[in-house]
Amino acid sequence: MVSKESSKDKAIVIVVSPLNALIDDQINKLNALGVCCASLRLCGGEADGRFEGSFQENLQTGNFQLIFTHPDVAVNNRHCRELFLLNYSQRNVVVVVVDEAHCIIEWGHDFRPDYGKLGTLSSVFPSAKIVAMTATATREYQRAITENLNMKNPSPVIANPDRANICYEVIQRPSYVKQGNVDQFEELLCPIAEEIITTTVRIPLTIIYSSLELCGVGFAFLERVLGDKQFYPMDAPKPHQNRLFAQFHSPQTDKMKSEIISRIVTESCTQRVIFATLAFGMGIDSPYVERVIHFGVPRTMESFFQESGRAGRDGRPDKSTLYFNNNDIGANVEGMQPIMREYCKNPKSECRRKIILKHFGFRIPNVQEQSNSFCDLCEKSCLSEFCDDTVDPDHSKVTANLAVSENQVQGIKSKLIGLKAETEANYFHLSMCSGLTMEGIDELCLTLSKAKTLDKILESVQIWRKEHAEQILKIIHNVTSRESSE
Ligand SMILES: [Zn+2]
């Protein structure tokens, strides 16, 4: 890159990027490093919209080293095309970068068609190098991207996308309950609300991906149960910056989205839980995100990997948890990649990291670096081998024949009722928060002989949180083993 002072004619790099929020974040970082950049953004909005009057002058006096723009602007806007065809631009634009190039395939034919037309830039700048960048491209995608951009003799630079510090976890929830997704989503949020109360700004920065509708549900739920405690500090004036949670989705204005992005890249960010749709995926680069939760299943492994990859960008161990039910991955869900069904159902109990990397044509690197925190299944097998816990996570040890006496049934029932009350007391006295209903307890007591493992418990009652199943299993185990040893 040529420094600002050295000459009038300077190399210019054009970067095509999908989101304004992303562009703003990158420009801020580059400006801080002393790189002069600008974004070609429309004042009018439409294809004929204009740019700020001083843009061309700044461009021709060599004030820009990097120019960020949108695919829509780069491809369709007449004034943009005029700027690109200026002698100055033709002489000085040396590289055109297409960032998040997987959008060419994923969005190109769909709701962002202009990504698919970026190949025309190779004829606008015939002597510039074209660079396509993405963190998620299978071999097939790579071929399609280079073809689409008219790249001749491309030199691929490929690295294993493995994210060794993220532990992947998948939790199945029941397919049907009364209020369906809303109830289950609120149940999931109960412990998070509790965490916000006890830890306020020290709660791990968490992104919760869901549908647009559930973003609103989650936001309203936390507002409702937290009351005054939703702000930090509690006695602060109460604009949205002081709220401990936020939403990020496409119906919001660019300004709101940019605000969230600029906050979550700072360590002191007050907004600790972000409800987000897939709009909050690509390129959001905060070292402070520690936890990503998916409620529902992204349709492509590329999206899932992008979104879960928002965690752990500082290299510390972080977690990705995906909650799904059979409806989420049903045959009628349009565009759901088979690999996502495999990732959720995992019929061969394969390491989840392995499944992800296999999709991108890679393997888990270097055996020596392997740990047991790759995924929930690896953790399980570690525990079952080395740990002596009363509740065997691999379920293999708790296989004693549960011939349960009537006394024991009553003992178990009263303990379960106690567990229900105790959990609900912890969580705002909301019955959904224990994951246990009286009907569920009755049902379980009728089928105790089958309740030998976590999986069986999760199957037989409408609870879906593993720690609840563990508590129930522990109660059953304790009551039955006590009486038989007496
Ligand atoms: Zn694993």
From TrEMBL:
Residues 1-155 form the Helicase ATP-binding domain. PANTHER family: DNA HELICASE RECQ FAMILY MEMBER, RECQ-LIKE DNA HELICASE BLM. Residues 184-355 form the Helicase C-terminal domain. One of its GO terms (cellular component) is cytoplasm. The keyword Hydrolase applies. One of its GO terms (biological process) is double-strand break repair via homologous recombination. The keyword Nucleus applies. It comes from the Eukaryota. Signal peptide: none annotated. Gene3D superfamilies: P-loop containing nucleotide triphosphate hydrolases. Belongs to the helicase family. RecQ subfamily. One of its GO terms (molecular function) is DNA binding. It catalyses: Couples ATP hydrolysis with the unwinding of duplex DNA by translocating in the 3'-5' direction. InterPro entries: DEAD/DEAH_box_helicase_dom, Helicase_ATP-bd, Helicase_C-like, P-loop_NTPase. Its EC number is 5.6.2.4. This is DNA 3'-5' helicase.
